[in-house]
Amino acid sequence: MSRGQPRGRSPGAPARTVKGRKPSSTRWLARQLTDPYVAEARRRGYRSRAAFKLIEIDHRCGVLSPGKRVVDLGAAPGGWTQVAVERVRPGSAEGGRVVAMDVTAMEPVPGAEILRHDVCAADAHELLKRALDGSADVLLSDMAPPFTGHHPTDHLRVVALVEVALGLADKVLAPGGVFVAKALEGGAGRELIAELKRRFGKVRNVKPRASRKESAETYIVATGFRGGAAA
Ligand SMILES: C[S@@+](CC[C@H](N)C(=O)[O-])C[C@H]1O[C@@H](n2cnc3c(N)ncnc32)[C@H](O)[C@@H]1O
Question: What is d(CA 225, CA 61) in angstroms, rounded to the nearest whole number?
Answer without folding.
Answer: 15
